[in-house]
Amino acid sequence: MTLSAAQEERILQLNALDEIRKSALQHTESIQNQRMKWHDRYIRDKSFKPGDWALLYDSRYKDNLGKLQTKWLGPYEIVDTFSNGAIRLSTIDPVKFKLLVNGNRLHLYHKTLTKDDFLRQFSTAQHAEIPTTTDDGLAVTTPS
User: Fold this and answer.
1) DSSP string across 49-68
2) Residue 135 pLDDT class (50, 70, 90 cuts)
3) Is the pLDDT confidence value at 113 over 80?
4) CB-based burial of residue 58 (10 Å sphere; 0-12 exposed, 13-18 middle, 19+ buried)?
C-alpha cells in the first residue's frame, strides 16, 4: 500500500465512523421519544384553584418508607397558581406561612365532613334505604 492509499483508507474509515455516530444519535433520539410518549401517557393533568386544599408530598421518605410513616404533609390551602405549574400554598393554622412548590408534588385534599353536613347529605340522598321492622320483628329495608 502506498502512502496515498493508506491516507484514502483512513479517510474512508473516518467517514464510516461519522455515519455510525449519526445513526447512533438517531437511534438514541428515537428511543428517547418512545420513552417520553410512554411516560406522558400516564401523567394526569391536575387542576388546582385558589381556595382548594392540597396535600404536599414529602420527598424525604421516598426511598425509606416505614410501615406507618406518611409521605404526605398538610393539608395546605392553595393561595395562587402560576402558568408554569408552580403553586403558592399557605398553612391552615392560625400562624400562617406561605411556600411555593411545584404542582406535581401536590394531591387534592377533600375536606372532611362534619356530623351535621353528613346528616344533611344523608337525608337528601335519593337512594337512601330506611330500615323498618314488621310485626314479626324482622328488619326490612325499603327505598325512600
Assistant:
1) -TT-EEEEE-GGGSS---SS
2) low
3) no
4) middle
Beta strands 53-57; 106-109: pairing state: antiparallel
Backbone angles phi, psi at 112, to 5 degrees: -75, 150
CA–CA dist 117, 114 (Å, integer): 5
**Cell matching residue 20:** 455510525
Listed in sequence order, the residues at least 6 apart from 129 whose beta carbon sits closer than 8 Å to its beta carbon are 141, 142, 143, 144
69-85 residue pLDDT tens: 788 888 999 999 999 88
Full-model pTM: 0.53
Here the cell at position 33 is 421519544
